[in-house]
Amino acid sequence: MSTYKASIYNYLFNSINAIIVIINGIVMVPIYFHYMSVSTYGAWLATGNMVAMLGLLESGFSSVITQKMAAAIGDGDDEKYRKLAGANIATAVMLAVAITLLGLSIAPFVTDWINVDQSVASDIRFAYIIALVASSVAICVSLFGAFPQVWQDTKSVGMINTCTGLMAVGSLVGFLLSGLGVISIALSYLVRATLNLVFQGSWILRKRRRGGISAPIYSMSESRQLAKDCVYPFFSKLSGVLMGNSQSFIIAHFMNPAGAVVYDLTAKVCYVACGFVSQTNGSFFALFSLTLSSGDKQKINNVFRNTTQFFAITLALVGLYSICFTEPVINYWVGLDKYGGTWLLVVIVLAKILFQFRAYCNNILYTGGMINKSAKLDILCAIVYIAILLAIIKPTQIYAIPIATLIVSLLFIVWYLKLMRDNLSLDVRMLATEIVKSVLLILPFLVVHFILQLDYRNLYLYAGYFVVFSVAYFVVLYYINRTFFTSLLSKFHKR
Prior knowledge:
Elements: H1 3-27, H2 29-35, H3 38-55, H4 59-75, H5 78-106, H6 110-113, H7 121-144, H8 146-151, H9 155-177, H10 183-211, H11 220-229, H12 231-244, H13 247-254, H14 257-283, H15 285-294, H16 297-333, H17 342-367, H18 371-396, H19 400-424, H20 428-452, H21 459-480, H22 482-494
Helix pairs in contact: 1-9, 1-14, 3-7, 3-13, 3-14, 4-5, 4-12, 4-15, 5-7, 5-11, 7-10, 9-10, 12-18, 13-14, 14-16, 14-17, 15-16, 16-17, 16-20, 17-18, 17-19, 18-19
């Protein structure tokens, strides 16, 4: 399978999985409120944040392992690849055990940290432990996912992820109907993680045997070197988790669980949509590594240009539709009493877009082997973020998180661009130009939308407005980016 084709398959199935996340994160939320209170759901969001913060720590390792394995294949170094593959498996097991033990050590205290009503405290703790086990299993799945990435064979695994995601949704509904309440959500995570481990593990073993792929070998020296290489990425990921996955916990701790629900639901449309944007990073990670390993500067810049254009277009699209249409979505979804207001929404969207931009730059640096330099910058970024957050959280309350994220992203993006230019010889001016072009494109549509202020309670009128708005935007988008879309359509036509 070609690198582009594998990346496209990867993006496609990751997007399908993102849709499944939408079902879990949006469609199911009103149903949750039939089986648990707003405060209980807020407590779950906060404890789920803690589990997510533990589980996402592995990404610092998976990114490094994927980059190194892809580079070894690109260099034709089979022995190096085998040792890295063995280190990958060992790392997955050790991380899963370590995170489980760490998570269990804080389990007795989680409800005290987030002001949980004692009547549901035991259920919240039990759900936390189940989610912790699910997260540990998912760590193994994530690290083992490096194999199809570097083999550039993502179609089968993508289908597995899709099927297990749908099965998890089905199990969630069944658990809720059985009266398990908030525990149902954690159990559905465990179902998906376990099924993914079984099916993906089986596929990897069959693929290796049938494809004649070299078997992993365990090397203590390679594992030790990998651990050293992952020190900075580990703390880098910790920094990213603090900035991107701690909102519900912070709000529940400094305010209350109900406030965590308001923030989460106000940000939900933007955050879910950004999940699709994030697929650009993950889906093309191995492609970047393999291309950079080739040393072909023209090919490298072509890949960089194509992914950057796609990233800028999708990011602008997310920002535009999140700001314009989140309020009516929340009104019909869960009710405006759970909406934080337009100004909170705007700040959240701006902060999230800049956060995604920074993450994109960070990912490119990782693929180029600039792991330690990028990681050190991430750590510094998190330190500044925490300092700003603690300084402003009392006067700004729920606004503190997006404001701190916005300030930090603006301060540090220039540094990331400089590293990309100086160390990878990438055309960062092109990246900045594409972002600015996309932002300038959406501004007139934002102005027109807020001038019109149409009543979304008139569903037929508003549906017509949405269609006209969308058609106008995409027509303008196509003509401004005609070369990109023509090239993209041409590639799909050839395939």
